[in-house]
Design brief:
The structure is a homodimer of 809-residue chains.
Chain A: H1 6-13, H2 19-41, H3 68-85, E1 88-93, H4 99-108, H5 111-115, H6 123-132, H7 160-168, E2 174-181, H8 188-193, E3 207-214, H9 230-239, E4 242-248, H10 252-280, E5 288-294, E6 304-305, E7 308-309, H11 328-339, H12 343-346, H13 355-358, E8 402-404, H14 405-419, E9 426-430, E10 448-449, E11 461-462, E12 467-469, H15 473-485, E13 489-495, H16 503-519, E14 529-534, H17 552-556, E15 564-567, H18 572-584, E16 589-593, E17 598-600, H19 605-614, E18 616-618, E19 633-638, H20 640-656, E20 662-667, H21 685-692, E21 698-702, H22 707-713, E22 722-725, H23 736-742, H24 747-757, H25 765-786, H26 791-794
Parallel strand pairs in A: 1-2, 2-3, 3-5, 4-5, 9-12, 9-13, 10-11, 13-14, 14-16, 15-16, 19-20, 19-21, 21-22
Antiparallel strand pairs in A: 6-7, 8-17, 18-20
Helix pairs in contact in A: 2-3, 2-4, 2-6, 2-10, 3-4, 3-10, 7-15, 14-18, 18-19, 20-24, 24-25
Protein name (chains A, B): Probable phosphoketolase
Pfam family, one (chains A, B): XFP
Domain Xylulose 5-phosphate/Fructose 6-phosphate phosphoketolase C-terminal (chains A, B): 596-798
């Protein structure tokens, strides 16, 4: 653009940009700001070809201006470095409620019109762009799944940086620019996610460029980080392990020079770090660059409205002034504001961005809106997977052998890890619990990711490890989401109680998936988010009450049926089958709950596969009813410990009351219980009635809070006869069996439940009830004396099955 | 202890302690360590008066040794400064799973035997202390509600520092020592809670002394902060605004000197800061001191077991070696380990701590185990409260006036704040949303707490403000919990969707309350934790799908019925009544869901009080059934928006089908729906049947996920006829009425539901259904054209009631 030699001019003026370059960036920024204001305010007259009248303005004004100009500024500068350095970059908008910024930019760069042809690059398209924003039937006010180039909603704050790192892992050529608002920076999840740099390997991973955007204010308050003394803030960023560069001010041309210089320096640093590591090997954790951008909130907007400060203040957070339809002064203010960007210099008469500005955007897939990493399904490759049957536990007959379910699954995961090592598209995540959750076989083929110092006695720590452990469920979840959304696969194991820490993150991911699946055909399916919840409520007897909470399932089932799945495999082979299924699935959130302790195994591999395929089944090998005619009682169970207690109760009942006809039903896929109208896995009513009968008592032993089973089955014919035992919030440090006794889920209570509910047993009730009472007293005395469970409980084994388990299914 | 002049000796040796003082502290520390190991391992032979045999050892070994010696070390040094400076101090054990440490120390100082006389200060008591730990019928392995001196469980990590600050607010004489494990330090909530110092006023608040305990390892990994280069860690702490002092090493006597010097310096600093502020006024935020203690994990325990590194490594995290009953070498190792503390020097032959060591503990209420702040109910004073009726909205007849419910409640809260300003025992908490949630009247009497720089245009920021705002729900919740647990009152307002961020913190507080109420008579009742959830699912039309989630209620009702309450006041006067009730209640978690938008008001104050007292009621003024005979349909509603839609539907039905007998039921107290066996507020079945009939269709419009109503009512007689509308996870940026339409909760769908379910209306179905279809089509067209709701919806008003609302109840 400058006829003279730009390099020379830059050298002479000691500037990052020539005057013409700075002007160009500023014009592009003005265009983005203009389009942002237009989206918030206008229905029509997008180019201001005629004077504004109230009818041009939306009746309801919804949007967030405050963060928007700062994000436009950042985006413009990222475009510059992408263009001149040919970078592969995506953009994460932490303050995602600044939707107008990203929408403006992806429209300017041309991506938006490619994804949504109706929003074309002309006046009509600009009018639609404005009209649709935050308008019924239009697009959300936030950076949402509908927004090309985004993997991050930004409505619930805290996760931008962990998403960014998740995207960068195993993408060595990718740079993820992550804008962190000073509001978001106050959240816990964001505060700890700065430490993600301890897990980023400059050889095999890409880079994250954090841009902490201090615009000073939240909704109504200054932001904490924005008011820190400079030295404290600098110390904080250095303490997090970054080298911060400060870009501070409000004069646009001056700020363009500073920002361009800072960007260039950061990208030089990134290149230097990566080259050094990739040529010389990883020696120590690098100090990565980052930018602190301090710019006014609502920058370039009205300084005052009705005599009150707006620019550089919280009043610009949302819509700076709202009486535009009714107050002519406000209408004039809006028109003056929009004309201050001089749209006639930015757009052609037909409404397209002028060519010399368009040239400042990157091209094709280099445009951040069109980078395939932000539509990860495009890049997704299936996992290479061994046949999970090869890891089967040999189960000659039900209850004949013990195994630790998660350890068996760990062997399978190890081989998945090994098979996909070259593809570099699978990682395992967890808060310091991979070994504790008995997935330690993984360490035969990989290590824990660790970029800091390693001692010679340390255990499987390495920069190229693929097990990601940090004691922050938030960070694990954020990394995993970022990894999945950019087209890879993962697995998250966690203590069951503490997965509640990410309840709200789960919500947001479930909402993202729902919208993508139902409404956005161009979003390609991504790998499911797989949780393995172990160290569960029934075996936290050593950690006590604070570690006992099975409520995540309840939380999960509130979300849309077509994105959530819940599995309760009762043993190792069913866990294998379920794990295989989950790793192959797409666009779901799969919750698997399984134990890690040595437990009796019930199903051989073929039976397990059949059982998991149905999701629910009658265990005839355990039942004493005949094929013709209904049983006296249905004993249903879901979860490993409830299954154990149910079978032990069946054992007692069959001994005490040999002619009792018991049907044992086991549920792996909890969603089979719901009606098919509610969940695609729901059993048809007729099938449900066949299994549970229409009139016999059902004693249901459930892993979690019992009322969930009622909530799932209240429309079923025989719901009236359903009696559920589960966790009723009783617990402490005790023995494993005492935990079930405290919650009436133990074999003895189940026996009593059966006797109480089968009418013809009433005459036998007395002696069986006496037996139950005696056993519970004996239990109490024994644990208080010996500190461990009754030998007859500890040593109990199912011995009734002589035939192999496959026969029964 | 030293015959010579200790001051002189200290000066001459340039040490904080004389040799004798260091020896004394070390002996006390050995005693605490000895008792800790004993708790983890022994059933009997507590003084090792005879050689250990397997029978002396517990059959199941449960406990966490790793953190314990470090915490013992800290506790001993805190005792020293309390004693020599006469400090008022409580102790927060972030690594609360190190239960043996606190139990050992409160026993040594004599508190434990006062609270639990059976655990006396002699051999028998010591045996009980050992036996009961992590033993069935005994005490939890964590620092739990059962532990005197604790307000913090430490099982779920992340909240120690926010609890500590919550305790320090408005307690100017209190110093809260907060031990933060390096595992906990990785969590999000902890990472941001360091910034709590920006909200601590040295004049009116106490002090927090953070002690970051780097013992290097978590369960299986090094800790991130423990492996940072020294300079980074120091920058991090300085960046958080603290002045760190490092105490690092492993030689006990050397470490005692360093720790005593660091403690003295920190306490001098605290005193200096407080004196300067209290004499000269608050000028700027002080830089508070903190300690970084780097000591080996499992310090003083076995260095190796079976040739594997244990001390200073993750293998010492729990029980360092476990085969003590079966492996004679392990048994010997245990005996050697315990004898290495030389118990015979520490305890009298009868098992009491020797007098010269006992003298090192503080006395009476100065003992951290007996500090009344750690049993806050002891200090709790009732709030002074204006009669909430004085803030009533005048409602001449139902639907005659509009009001913003939370704004009205805000006026009440303002006066509560004012009345209790002198007592300094009430604060309001929220993530930057107090004004947005329309509680702004509070700012007439107080400000937002803010210790950093204040600009002249800032809005109600001051060091002595009593509204606590930080954009971290975790920190708000942690502060509030700490404030309540130390005997004060509080109120937390939050966007409904984002309260899920603290789901797991809610869990832990509910568990704490449950245990206190049911099992620990010496724990005195504390003020309830009150949530006001507003900006709720139905009025997040501008922020869109990410902000729409009413599931916190579902989460809450999983906890014990005797600690949780859920209220859905339909208008301002009911919100006033409920708020008053919640502020007066004790030991509950109260969840109030209420809107902030201008809405029609239904009940005058007296009606509102009566309605809230019952928790549920028939609104006869809206009903068209007669007192004798059952209605054709029951239209039930819970929540402000469902109430509006129900009444609008009733209005339509009464116009279209004048002879239809409709009964309108409104539910304020959701727990009335449950059977009384499940919740103390549950209606008796007969009363429930009277209200809901036993055979008429019930159309229930509910604020949240509809299945919750089924889960609460599935045992009720007429459950079969219950049809619930609620949020079914559909939403985006749209209009308020479109939100209810998308979820079938709108007046038109409710009308259709009624017509479909009342048998005698079938012949009228066609024209009413046509009306519904027409209206929904008109709605869709109108919002897409105009961007706002149909005028007949926006302008709808209830005009049927001529009599005052009180008559109808």
């Amino acid at each position: 653009m400058n006829a003279e030699d730009p390099t020379k001019e830059r050298e002479e003026t000691k500037s990052a940009l020539t005057a013409a370059e700075a002007d160009g960036l500023n014009a592009y920024w003005r265009a983005a700001n203009y389009l942002s204001v237009g989206q918030i305010y206008l229905l029509a007259n997008p180019l201001l070809l005629e004077p504004l009248v109230p009818e041009h303005v939306k009746p309801r004004l919804l949007g967030h201006w405050g963060t928007t100009p700062g994000q436009n500024f950042i985006y413009v500068h990222l475009n510059r470095v992408i263009r001149i350095r040919d970078l592969n970059m995506i953009y994460i908008s932490g303050p995602g409620h600044g939707g107008p910024a990203v929408l403006a930019n992806v429209w300017l760069e041309g991506t938006y019109s490619e994804y949504y042809p109706a929003v074309s690059e002309n006046e009509a398209g600009m009018k639609t762009l404005f009209h649709q924003f935050s308008f019924p039937g239009g697009v959300p006010s936030h950076v949402a799944p509908e927004t090309p180039g985004s993997i991050h909603e930004g409505g619930e704050l805290g996760y931008s940086l962990s998403h960014a790192y998740g995207a960068a892992f195993d993408n060595p050529d990718l740079i993820v620019a992550a804008v962190i608002g000073d509001g978001e920076a106050e959240t816990g999840p964001l505060s700890t996610s700065w430490h993600s740099n301890k897990f980023l390997n400059p050889c095999r991973d890409g880079a994250v460029l954090p841009i902490l955007h201090l615009n000073g204010y939240k909704i109504a308050n200054p932001a904490v980080l924005a008011r820190l003394p400079h030295e404290e803030l600098e110390n904080l960023m250095k303490g997090y392990g970054y080298s911060p560069r400060f870009v501070e001010g409000s004069d646009p041309l001056d700020m363009h020079q500073k920002m361009a210089a800072a960007m260039d320096a950061c990208l030089d640093d990134i290149k230097g770090i990566q080259q050094a590591a990739r040529n010389g090997g990883v020696r120590e954790r690098p100090v990565w660059p980052m930018i602190v951008l301090r710019s006014p909130k609502g920058w370039s907007g009205p300084k005052e409205v009705d005599g009150k400060k707006v620019e550089d203040f919280w009043r610009s957070h949302q819509v700076p002034f709202a009486e535009v339809r009714t107050n002519p002064a406000h209408l004039q203010l809006l028109e003056d504001w929009m004309r201050s960007y001089r749209p006639e210099e930015l757009f052609t008469p037909s409404g397209a961005l002028r060519a010399e500005l368009k040239a400042l955007a990157p091209k094709g897939k280099r445009r951040m809106g069109d980078n395939p990493h932000a539509n990860g399904g495009l890049l997704l490759r299936d996992l290479m997977m061994h046949d999970f049957r090869d890891f089967a536990v040999m189960v000659p007959s039900p209850g004949a052998v013990e195994a630790e379910a998660t350890r068996v699954a760990g062997a399978f995961l190890r081989d998945v890890m090994k098979e996909n090592m070259a593809a570099a598209n699978f990682r395992v995540f967890g808060p310091d619990e991979t070994a504790s959750n008995r997935l330690g076989f993984l360490f035969e083929v990989t290590d824990r990711t660790w970029m800091d110092e390693v001692m010679d006695y340390d255990d499987h720590l390495a920069p190229d490890g693929r097990v990601m452990e940090i004691l922050s469920e938030h960070t694990c979840q954020g990394w995993l989401e970022g990894y999945l959304l950019t087209g890879r696969h993962g697995f998250f194991s966690c203590y069951e109680a503490f997965i509640h820490i990410v309840d709200s993150m789960f919500n947001q991911h479930a909402k993202w998936l729902k919208v993508c699946k139902q409404e956005i055909p161009w979003r390609r399916p991504i790998a499911s988010l797989n949780y393995l919840l172990t160290s569960h409520v029934w075996r936290q007897d050593h950690n006590g009450f604070s570690h006992q909470d099975p409520g995540f399932i309840d939380h999960v089932v509130n979300k849309k049926a077509d994105v959530i799945r819940v599995y309760l495999p009762p043993d190792a082979n069913t866990l294998l089958s379920v794990t295989d299924h989950c790793l192959r699935s797409r666009d779901y959130i799969n919750v698997i709950v399984a134990g890690k302790q040595p437990s009796w195994q019930w199903l051989d591999m073929e039976s397990a596969v059949r059982h998991c395929t149905c999701g629910i089944g009658i265990w005839e090998w355990a039942s004493s009813d005949t094929l013709d005619g209904d049983p006296d009682v249905v004993m249903a169970c879901a979860g490993d410990v409830p299954t154990l207690e149910t079978l032990a109760a069946v054992d007692i009942l069959r001994e005490k009351i040999p002619d009792l006809k018991i049907r044992v039903v086991n549920i792996v896929d909890l969603m089979t219980l719901q009606p098919p109208e509610e969940h695609p896995h729901g059993l048809k009513d007729r099938d449900f009635d066949d299994i549970f009968t229409i009139d016999r008592p059902i004693i249901f032993a459930y892993h979690g809070y019992p009322w969930l089973i009622h909530r799932l089955t209240y429309r079923r014919t025989n719901h009236y006869n359903l009696h559920v035992r589960g966790y009723k919030e009783e617990g402490t440090t005790s023995t494993p069996f005492d935990m079930v006794v405290r919650n009436d889920l133990d074999r003895f209570h189940l026996v009593a439940d059966v006797v109480e509910r089968v009418p013809r047993l009433r005459q036998k009730a007395a002696y069986v009830k006496q037996y139950v009472r005696d056993m519970l007293i004996a239990h109490n005395e024994y644990i208080r004396t010996h500190g461990e469970d009754l030998p007859e409980v500890r040593n109990w084994q199912w011995t009734r099955t002589l035939k192999p388990s496959t026969d029964g299914l």
